[in-house]
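Exercise 7. Predict the structure of GPI anchored protein from Penicillium bovifimosum.
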Amino acid sequence: MKLSTLGRILLGTTVAQAATINYSTVTGYFMQDEESTDASKFDYTSENFGLINRTYPVDNKLKGHKSLTQWERFHHQVTQLNDEAPNHIEYKVLFLGRHGEGWHNTAESYYGTPAWNCYWAELDGNGTASWVDATLTPTGESQALKANAFWQKQIHEQRIHTPDHYYVSPLTRTLQTANLTFTGLVLPKGSAPFKPTVKELFREGISIHTCDHRRSRSYIHDLFPNWPIEEGFSEEDELWDGVTAESADAQDARSAQALGQVFFASSGKKEAFVSVTAHSGEIASILRVLKHREFSLNTGAVIPVLVKAEKVEHGASTTSSVPWTVSPHCTEPPVTSVSACVCPSSAVPVTTVLATGV
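Solution. The predicted structure, encoded as tokens:
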């Protein structure tokens, strides 16, 4: 199969760069940046998205700053950081949102992670539920609607600056989550409308699990016909084959590539607030690229991160390749999987596809 340029980039076979962007998290603004914040107990809806109640250097320059909300003053602070930064440095606030609970999440909880990873996740479903490119459960839909209500509350009470750009992973659970989260919001006057770009590079880590096998471009377009799909997006999923899996290093290289298409874009520094609706593994990868501390999100959760990006030009283009790995799995349900997967003696691990996917 002849791969598109985007497909070759994702597979790590051709990555040419004329410049490198170094990313770092600007700490001191959000609770999630602090080592003392317990991710397992963090609730973004009760913590103002984690924005720390503090003063900013820009406050004294703002007329009537005492009447401004924390988010209004933070927006001015980010604006000043960009105004004072040289052309090769840019600041953005990334709202990283994890999709709501999907049927694959409930299946993993039911079977246990070891059995899920080595057998059940390679199937299309179990006769009761399907998890190929999993859709949201009713709980997942409620989690997305909870985010919608919180965004509306923040718009009304905090006069928060809503995203200037929206991006969403092409997997169905993220498309549904973004739609439920942002559709119907009464946005501030002059705000960018909710019209997310479907972006391949923000998909979940590509494993042999069928939940990571995306549907076709036509399916996505038919589901949300008014949403733009990025240039170069292939009709069928070129990347999932049910045999090889993306390594953590390969995923981080992909996440860096995605961020490189978000930062230093034609819109410039003025549009500094960006929403990315993605997945637990992809958000973890993005945070690694941003040199942020590890911070796991529950399904449906959202955290903002203030990012500094610095472009470093190269004298010539460079090419790099990050290998993928083969993932053995059982051909029958494992005998035991409390702490590790043990295949039946008659079903030794194989590296072939168990299910056809979508």
